[in-house]
Design goal:
heterodimer; A: 39 residues; mainly alpha; B: 379 residues; globular
Chain lengths: 39, 379
């Protein structure tokens, strides 16, 4: 059983989900501020 | 003459019927009963149930090369066309306003993917202890993604990584989605205090149309650059949403929400049910997949709840942790359950719109998780 591969999938996969969505959070907050600046 | 009659009789399905076919008929009839009588995800369980019944009628050739259901399965699922089209329709029906108004709830959608990895390891442990079951990395990914409670993503991932498990994983995903109101509340009450369940959240700010138009573009850009295998699902999800939020293509939005969604749902249900032949489904693997799917679902619910409680340690304006459980992707059922359990603690607490944020975030989170699975597990 490739436990190393499994651990890699878990560590990078789960943290990857958080990182991706955290970047999306920052993007939404930034876009919101920029739009309010121009309004 | 007698010889001719004998030949004709042997060509009927009666002579090839076995007990396993009858068992699958009963399973098909059970799905039909649950769909009609109990209203459990009828849009999927009804065509799935009927397809299970009909594909287990012997000698029909429906799932043989060139058979009708095999054509639906091949061009709809093997070519991975149906799940992205379902997402196109879903995007056209989704309002991202609650998510944009409170974007930190995206993290609750991420936390709710915890159950995916619990089931992933559970499947690997079973595969290690019982090698003849055949649960390797690819199978574990397909089983784990059931924890995201997202039918099209489960189907998309399973077709890519372990198509032999499609019937069991798809039915497990849709079954648990329909059982959200039964599975989630005990976990929600176990992991939260009455005081926490009574937390009131401030009304969400209004979200401008410009933000709603830019969101699908930004989300597509970010997610498809980080996780390219998620592109078919995420791009279709966001283009459907862009149709809706642009407000200039009402015909396309209407078609995506209605005609397209309905047609594709028919083919999805029939194709998934058609994979459930007795030989493929009546195995220990199917039972284990159902058990692991339930474990995945429970831990996903718990993951969202626990992160919400952790976030409250740092937030000045507390969030009601019940909305964390809505991070599973069963939209909008999980959000409605959060509202219901919150209202039991305090009837004046309206959590539905707050819970929609993590609920929709869960869809995005599951697609991202699936994208990482595919990019790391596919050869």
């Amino acid at each position: 059983m490739p436990w190393e591969q499994a651990l890699r999938i878990f560590v990078f996969g789960f943290s990857g989900v958080f990182l991706t969505l955290a970047i999306l959070v920052i993007a939404i907050l930034t876009l919101g501020k920029v739009i309010r600046l121009f309004n | 003459m007698i010889e001719f009659l004998s030949t004709m009789v042997w060509k009927t399905g009666f002579m090839s019927l076995e007990v396993k076919h009858l068992i699958m008929w009963l399973i098909g009839f059970l799905f039909i009963y649950l769909a009609i009588k109990k209203d459990y995800e009828p849009l999927l369980l009804l065509p799935i149930g009927f397809a299970v019944f009909v594909v287990n009628l012997p000698l029909t050739g429906l799932m043989e090369e060139g058979g009708l259901l095999q054509i639906f399965y091949h061009f709809g699922l093997e070519w991975e066309v149906i799940p992205p089209l379902i997402f196109l329709g879903l995007g056209a029906m989704t309002d991202f306003g609650p998510l944009i108004a409170n974007p930190k709830t995206l993290l609750l959608g991420a936390a709710a993917q915890f159950g995916v990895y619990v089931a992933f390891f559970g499947a690997l442990v079973i595969g290690y202890l019982f090698p003849n079951i055949g649960f390797g990395i690819r199978e574990a990914c397909s089983i784990g993604i059931i924890g995201g409670a997202d039918g099209p993503t489960t189907i998309y991932t399973t077709v890519k990584l372990a198509p032999q498990l499609l019937g069991a994983t798809a039915v497990a995903a849709y079954s648990y989605m329909s059982l959200v109101p039964i599975i989630q509340p005990p976990i929600m009450k176990l992991l939260t205090t009455e005081k926490e369940r009574k937390i009131h959240m401030r009304q969400l700010r209004p979200v401008s149309q410009v933000e709603k138009i830019l969101f699908p573009l930004a989300a597509t850009l970010i997610i498809c650059l980080i996780v390219p295998p998620a592109a078919p699902l995420m791009a279709m999800f966001m283009i459907g949403n862009l149709f809706r939020e642009s407000r200039v293509v009402k015909r396309l939005t209407g078609a995506a929400q209605n005609e397209l969604m309905n047609i594709v749902t028919i083919f999805l249900g029939i194709s998934v049910g058609a994979t459930m032949s007795a030989d493929k489904f009546l195995r220990l693997e199917a039972l284990l997949i159902f058990a692991l799917g339930l474990v995945a679902f429970i831990f996903s619910t718990a993951g969202g709840l626990v992160l919400a409680k952790l976030m409250n340690l740092f937030l000045k304006e507390k969030i009601n942790p019940l909305i964390g459980s809505a991070g599973v992707s069963a939209v909008p059922m999980a959000a409605r359950v959060a509202q219901k359990v919150g209202a039991e603690a305090d009837p004046k607490n309206f959590l539905l719109m707050h819970a929609m944020g993590p609920n929709i975030a869960g869809v995005i989170g599951t697609v991202v998780a699936a994208g990482f699975f595919i990019s790391m597990a596919a050869r």
